[in-house]
Every structure is written in C-alpha cells, then in structure tokens.
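Narrative progress, year one. The postdoctoral researcher (J.K.) led the effort to move from monomer predictions toward full complexes, under supervision of the PI. The following entry was the first complex the group processed end to end, covering 448 residues in total.
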Amino acid sequence: MPGVLVIEDDDRIRLSLVLALEDEGYAVRGAASAEEGLVAQREEPADTVLVDLMLPGADGFECIRQLRREDDVPIVVVSARDDTHDIVAALEAGADDYLVKPVAVKELSARLRALRRRGRTLLAPVSTMAFGDLEILPEAGEVRLRGEPVALTRTEFRLLCELAEHPGLVLSRQQLLQRVWEYEIGDERLVDVHVGRLRQKIEDDSRAPRYLVTVRGMGYKLQK
Amino acid sequence: MPGVLVIEDDDRIRLSLVLALEDEGYAVRGAASAEEGLVAQREEPADTVLVDLMLPGADGFECIRQLRREDDVPIVVVSARDDTHDIVAALEAGADDYLVKPVAVKELSARLRALRRRGRTLLAPVSTMAFGDLEILPEAGEVRLRGEPVALTRTEFRLLCELAEHPGLVLSRQQLLQRVWEYEIGDERLVDVHVGRLRQKIEDDSRAPRYLVTVRGMGYKLQK
DNA sequence: CAGAAGTATGACGGTTTCATGACAAGAGTT
DNA sequence: AACTCTTGTCATGAAACCGTCATACTTCTG
C-alpha cells in the first residue's frame, strides 16, 4: 500500500489531510514538526512526503534539503504562500511539486499518483504476484516456485495469469475458455487437461493441489 | 543541452515561452498544433514537453495520451483553466505537472529542473548497462563481453539496446519490429534472424543462450 | 452400494513455432 | 568497378506445443 508522510504543524490541517488521503486509499502518517518528520521517515520510509513550508523550528526548506540528502523520496510541498520566489526556492531545495493552500484533495491525489507513476515506470519494471511460494511475473513471462524458475508453455502461463488475477475466486471452465483461449464455445475438457499439465509443474503433489484448486461443479481457483 | 518542445497554438504565447526558456538555457522548439507536436517529438525527441490544453483539432488531453503512449517523456501542461477537474484529468491522462497561465518563467524553469532531476536520478544507471559479463555502453555505441569489445552491426546494436532497456521484460516480435525497425507491420521472422546473429556474437553457446532468451509464444527478453 | 456425473491423466498425431544456413540486393569503401 | 559488409527473404528441419480421445479415478446421489 502506498505510504505517505504528512509533515505539518497545524493540527487541524494535518488531520484533515491525513483523513482525506486515507480516503483516497493511502496509508498515511502524520508528523507535527520537521524533526519528527525526519525521524519518522528514517524509521519507516514512506514513499511520498508532504511538507508544509512554514514549520516551527527548522524551517520547511531545511527540512526538504535534509530529506533529500537522506533519501530519494518524492517530496510535495503544501504551502499557504503562493509566491514565485518561494516556489522556486522549494523546488531548488529538492521538492518535486508545490501546491498552494487550500488544496483540492482530488488534485493532490492526482499529483501524488503522477509522481508515483513517474517513479515506477523507471524504477520497477516488473510487477509480481505471489501465492505462497509461487511468484508470477507477468511482463517477464516468468513463474518461480521457491525462487526457481518454472518453464511453462504459453497456454499454461496465460491460464495461470488469468487465475492469478482473481485470487481466491472460482473461475468456470467457460470463463477460462473465453479469456485464455478466446473461444466462444469449446470443449470444457480442454481446460482440465491444461490445468493438469500446469499442476504437474507448479504443484509438489498434483493429487493434493496447494495452489490450483478444483471446486467441483464450478471450476478452478488459485489460492494463497 | 536540455531540449524542450512547446506545443501551443497561440503564436504570441508560444513565442514568448520559447524565448523565455531559451533565456534559461534550454534548446527549445515550438509546434502550433497537437499533430505538429507529435510529429516533432517523433522525429527529434525533446526531453521535456510543454503542452497547452486548449489546442485546435485534437484536444490537449488526447495529445497527452498520445505522447505518453509513444514515449516516456515528462509532460508539463500549461493552461489558462485553473479548475480542479481539468487538472486531475490532465494528470490522469499522463501529464507530470500542471501550471496555470500566466506562468512565471522562473517557476516554470524550476519545475522543469525538478522534473528533469527526478528523471535523472532514477534513469542515471542507463549510461552503462550490465548483464552479467555483458556490458552495453549506449552512448559509446559499444558492447563488451568479459571486457572484450564485440563488433555488432547497427541493427544488432539497436536490438540489443531495446532489449536492455527493459531488463527481464519479454518484448514481442511486434514490439521489436516497431521499436528497432520502425515497421508498423512486417515479417516477424526477421526478428528471429537478427536475434540469431546477435546470439552468435554475444552468447558462448547460441543453443543455450544465457542472456538473450526466447520465451516461446511471447517473444524475447534479455536477462542478467 | 451401484450408477451417474464430474474430474484426472497418459498417449498420439497434427500443427505451430523457432533456429539456422543459403542467397541476393543494397550500401558503403577502396 | 570490384570488394566487403549488412540486411531482408526464403527454405528446411527439429523441437515444442496443442487439442482430442480413451481410460481411470473420485465424488455425489438415490
């Protein structure tokens, strides 16, 4: 879950930011001062930091520089001052974005997403889905069992991905035929055969499947 | 020199933006429409693009989406409308920042620098890419295997770079044809042939490739 | 408990997908 | 102009894969 740290001294504003961002699905922590914020970030790094510019003690600029020195985390400034001079100074200090209060939560959230996206496209090229000891890397066309690569055929791979995209959900043979084979109609036994082959490769004991489970009369599902 | 592309239909505004940014030390080109901008970016990619939202013909959002589809270049929107709804829509479409006209040139410049910096810190290790004993130096146009230079043809080199830019990711023959050959359509076997030739040069045993791996039914990938 | 329905699995032939060597056309050099 | 290097096309053979079927096994139902 995306983690955000909010550094803001005004209790009311901080609380409202925290609540609003939680509503948007972020895991949020708050800090009431620059020092507190820096410590929090050191101990449990958030992947985005929101900073107010006017903080008691060490001012916001110093806080940004310090964060930047320790970490490469994206920093968004939220400030009441909408003065070009401040904006430039904050960005030069290392901030990635600057918003003027009052901020629209929707905009803030969209800007956080934009920042996160930019980071991700360059940083994390491969997404992973994990089911216990079973890892699935869709873009890499790779599957690993206890870290060891497993050689799957195209159909097996697609079947596994389809199931993995709906963890714990039962998919009927019909659904699988349509999504994996793009058949409108077809022999449902075909699915059985491929499930069987897949089990030989990813299950220790294909008689007692741990991941790829049969739900009699309904279909198959993939579980953790 | 950092290159910026300004897509803006109003001649006066475009010109003033171009001049102002040139003053700040950027190499700037202008485009008066979305279409012109897309073509310009295709032919000679700038490393940041500025887009006006209100363009004649294809609107700005569509332009952003198209840019994003073709390229990973940072996009900054400059618009007269300061409406949360527009801002969110632009960011969702793929923009990285959004500024409301009239823009302070100093702020614009600072934001461009911030964006560029974020790009670079994450993109930096591109200058030399390593896959085990295989080193790729894109700028130098050089490839080394265990320190020894390997002579590659232009096509082989481009193919290798394209794969190397997405380490571990499977690229389909279609994708490779488009990116390396700039063919929209073409015989996919062509890719096989060049992969084969590349393997002869960079693999010890081209029958059991260590780096340039075939993912049957999907494409090829380069792995560590 | 017997039959039915549903599921697992091994075997086999046809098809698809790949790797590779041969070759001719084009580009660039000497 | 002869030469070399590169590139795209084609043909061939080998390997991998897929779908079908028959059979065996399990679970449910009356």
